[in-house]
Design brief:
Chain lengths: 207, 175
């Protein structure tokens, strides 16, 4: 049980129901793999459960705390992958070991339909971890800078500058791959078969 | 970029699986902790009690333990002035010497064993050639009205009755 800002007791299960989808989406947007996203989501919630006694509302929201854990898990995943301690087959085994249903297959197929997202994600991998986190949180998860600052424990002012620099780097990387603003615009103007929900938007890609 | 459609995939089966795993972990982890805590506390209390009983039953144990841990010679303290040499503090704590000092009757043979054991603790062990002298003393303690305490050493004669006070000026001490 955890106390909320008003002192009411909330069960971990309630928190799990509230934040599961958000954390899964975030990890999916970071790693662009359903299997890995499931594994990272699982690790995030297990870590949250084991460290629940450390959490204090006074230091920030539960959501920010979960995003921070998830961010660390993503960074650890990439580090392990870089050092060869985790390969794709092991990850597949971890995530899918108890499931024989076709949900995973369907989810991977749905993900593959988002070709522009996948290209964008590949370009995103060329940025450093902090830049990737900033872009995903700001433009994919549409978090305000104040919340991003809370997640990353940084000052909002410095994050604005860093995000703009990261965007510029991403734009260069996309152009190097032959993806420009017009092509991105065309991609989402076309109807898509994937049953995802597109989200509200604030501004376009840095032009 | 914000307009770009992002995948929003629902994985309900995985969500339920993870919920089950988390519930299982939630139900197991506190019980394990609560089960371990009394056992750990009991074990610790038992270990402390054993140590305490050992120290009471064998008073020389702490000093031996200390010497063993520090692996250095214990502080030497002069317990008696014999021929100007000091005896290691732990010499008196050896089981043999302790037995000689506190148990049974004081006989020349026991004295000899005591002295040999005593000197064996020093760097150059020595053996007793012969008993030089033998005297029997009575030691009596008194308390004065002023609150001071006085110890009187009385040298007893061979028959145990003909006694004489040993030089008062040297042997009467106030604490």
């Amino acid at each position: 049980m955890v106390k909320d800002e008003k002192g009411n007791l909330i069960s971990f299960e309630q928190l799990y129901d509230t934040y599961f989808q958000a954390i899964f989406n975030y990890t999916l947007h970071r790693v662009a793999s359903v299997v890995v996203a499931e594994d990272l989501t699982s690790q995030t919630f297990f870590k949250a459960l084991n460290n629940l006694w450390k959490f204090r509302w006074s230091r920030g929201s539960f959501s920010s705390w979960l995003y921070r854990i998830a961010t660390n898990e993503v960074v650890n995943y990439y580090r392990n992958q870089k050092h060869g301690s985790l390969n794709q087959s092991e990850t597949d085994h971890l995530a899918g070991q108890d499931r024989t249903d076709s949900e995973l297959e369907q989810a991977e197929q749905e993900l593959a339909k988002n070709s522009m997202f996948m290209s964008l994600n590949q370009a995103l991998q060329k940025l450093n971890h902090e830049e990737q986190t900033l872009i995903v949180l700001r433009y994919f998860e549409q978090k305000p800078f104040a919340e991003i600052a809370e997640i990353l424990r940084k000052r909002p002012g410095s994050l604005t500058m860093k995000t703009h620099r990261a965007l510029a780097k991403l734009k260069t990387e996309l152009e190097r791959r032959g993806i420009n603003h017009e092509r991105i615009r065309r991609s989402f103007a076309e109807p898509t078969e994937a049953p995802y929900q597109s989200r509200g938007v604030q501004t376009g890609f840095a032009s | 970029m914000q307009n770009l459609p992002k995948p929003h995939i629902k994985v309900e089966a995985f969500k339920q699986d993870l919920r089950r795993d988390l519930n299982r972990a939630m139900s197991q982890s506190p019980q394990t902790g609560y089960r371990l805590a009394p056992g750990f506390a009991g074990g610790l209390a038992g270990a402390l009690a054993i140590v305490l009983v050992l120290f009471i039953a064998r008073p020389e144990m702490p000093a031996r333990l200390n010497a063993w841990i520090s692996n250095t010679q214990a502080t030497q303290t002069q317990v008696a002035e014999t021929v100007g040499e000091s005896v290691p503090m732990n010499a008196l704590n050896s089981p043999n010497l302790h037995q000689l000092l506190v148990g049974g009757q004081a006989t020349p043979a026991r004295d000899e064993a005591f002295i040999e054991d005593w000197y064996a603790k020093q760097e150059q062990p020595a053996r007793v050639k012969k008993i030089e002298d033998e005297k029997i003393y009575a030691i009596r303690k008194y308390q004065l009205t002023s609150g001071q305490r006085v110890v009187v050493f009385t040298e007893l004669g061979d028959d145990g009755n003909n006694y004489k006070h040993v030089s008062k000026s040297e042997h009467v001490r106030a604490f």
